[in-house]
């Protein structure tokens, strides 16, 4: 998009269905070329885009300053501003993230399995691109780069629809990705940004049966619920990240303090941030006060159950609603539990199937936690902030899928593929 005027975006009258239909047609044509391209060429596109991100960082920062100023004028939360804001290190991370994707194995054309039937048929299961992927997201402009890069490396075309709050930054980043494709003679329509903030465009994407192969929402509860409710195309979604740290009775106290502080406060506005701390009654008397002091000193507000309040009086009382809340802010719910069974039961009732971590030196307890907690990511003695594709060695991820079909956990390049069966014969016929 050449004109990055926000006024133009907001005032433009559109026919959403016609707009998305046109974009879909262009995406399908581009995806045909991408699916036939070789891995080296797709990697070259990402390297080119990474270089452009670095050379155009001033323009990116200038666009982002405008987005942040508009968001601040609306009086949004500090956590929201944190997700929206880019700086030099975050821009460099976008570039290095693209370069990391090029170091992965080619996810397209991989032989996933192969066997021979008694009749001599040779059968292989081969990975293939998903096709045209729609990504609907809110305030994190870096999602533009992660999503577009992963789609490209897996031979898919991407139609991106950012939130209005990051539209200027996201549009510029999408342009850079399209130019990266064009520089290696791949169609720049492989990455398209929906050029309007009109919410009708989202509805048109969700109804694009036969045009968009899968939609991936990344944002808050209202966005994801809308996508899941209205979509007529398949959806990879995480509803929210209500992530838990559970401190078991056999936890190492220093590990518990360090991990809890990092899981909550490293970045409070990401979906892998811990939102609830569970701690065994047998160690809470000695340990909870120290953990609470660490968190409060770092600026975190604590909301505790009755037993937690009795141990740390400067908490506020937690309500039933708190256990279901993804704060995305410097707030942590705290509950004292009577052992592993109660911790697992709490996570089962209140969790969102995103990421949970147990802090313990007992391998038996960790193994039970792994087996009985049904979340996309379960951890032992590690911060929930590691729940993203980059930290899993996947280069990056579009989101954390909390469903149970096709993709679960970090959605990286390999998760953006399907497969087909290739059957080799030598004249066989069926009786």
Helix/strand class: alpha/beta
> How many helices in DSSP terms?
16
| Helix content estimate | 40-55%
Strand order of the largest sheet: 10-9-11-8-7-12-13
Per DSSP, what share of the residues sits in E-state strands of 2 or more residues? Answer: 15-25%
Average pLDDT level: 93
Rounded to the nearest angstrom, the radius of gyration is 23 Å
Strand count, sense and closure of the main sheet? Answer: 7 strands, parallel
In CATH, the homologous superfamily of the largest domain goes by the name: Aldehyde Dehydrogenase, Chain A, domain 1
The end-to-end span amounts to: 58 Å
Number of strands: 16
CATH architecture of the largest domain: 3-Layer(aba) Sandwich
């Amino acid at each position: 998009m050449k004109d990055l005027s926000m006024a133009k975006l907001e005032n433009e009258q559109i026919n959403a269905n016609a707009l998305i239909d046109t974009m879909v047609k262009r995406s399908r044509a581009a995806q045909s070329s991408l699916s036939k391209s070789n891995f080296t060429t797709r990697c070259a596109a990402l390297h080119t885009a990474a270089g452009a991100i670095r050379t155009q960082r001033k323009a990116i920062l200038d666009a982002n300053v405008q987005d942040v100023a508009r968001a601040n004028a609306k009086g949004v939360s500090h956590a929201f501003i944190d997700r929206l804001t880019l700086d030099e290190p975050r821009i460099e991370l976008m570039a290095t993230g693209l370069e990391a994707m090029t170091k992965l194995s080619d996810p397209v054309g991989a032989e996933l399995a192969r066997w021979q039937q008694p009749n001599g048929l040779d059968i292989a299961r081969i990975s293939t691109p998903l096709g045209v992927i729609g990504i609907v997201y809110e305030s994190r402009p870096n999602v533009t780069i992660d999503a577009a890069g992963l789609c490209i490396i897996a031979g898919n075309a991407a139609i991106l629809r950012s939130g209005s709050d990051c539209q200027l930054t996201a549009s510029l980043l999408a342009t850079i990705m399209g130019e990266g494709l064009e520089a290696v003679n791949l169609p720049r329509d492989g990455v398209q940004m929906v050029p309007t903030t009109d919410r009708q465009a989202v509805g048109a994407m969700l109804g694009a049966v036969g045009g968009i192969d899968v939609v991936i929402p990344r944002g808050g509860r209202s966005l994801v619920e809308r996508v899941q409710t209205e979509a007529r195309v398949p959806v990879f979604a995480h509803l929210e990240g209500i992530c838990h740290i559970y401190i078991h009775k056999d936890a190492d106290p220093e590990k518990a303090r360090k991990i809890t502080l990092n899981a909550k406060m490293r970045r409070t506005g990401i979906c892998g941030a811990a939102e609830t701390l569970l701690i065994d009654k047998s160690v809470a008397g000695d340990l909870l006060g120290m953990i609470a002091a660490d968190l409060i000193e770092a600026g975190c507000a604590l909301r505790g159950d009755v037993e937690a309040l009795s141990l740390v009086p400067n908490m506020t009382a937690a309500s039933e609603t708190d256990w279901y809340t993804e704060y995305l802010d410097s707030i942590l719910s705290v509950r004292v539990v009577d052992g592993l069974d109660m911790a697992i039961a709490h996570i089962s009732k209140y969790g969102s199937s995103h990421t949970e971590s147990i802090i313990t030196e007992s391998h038996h307890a960790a193994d039970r936690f792994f087996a009985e907690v049904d979340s996309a990511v379960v951890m032992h003695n590690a911060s929930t902030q590691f729940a993203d594709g980059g930290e899993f060695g996947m280069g990056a991820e579009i989101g954390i899928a909390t469903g149970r079909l096709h993709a679960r956990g970090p959605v990286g390049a390999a998760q953006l593929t399907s497969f087909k069966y290739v059957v080799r014969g030598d004249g066989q016929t069926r009786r």
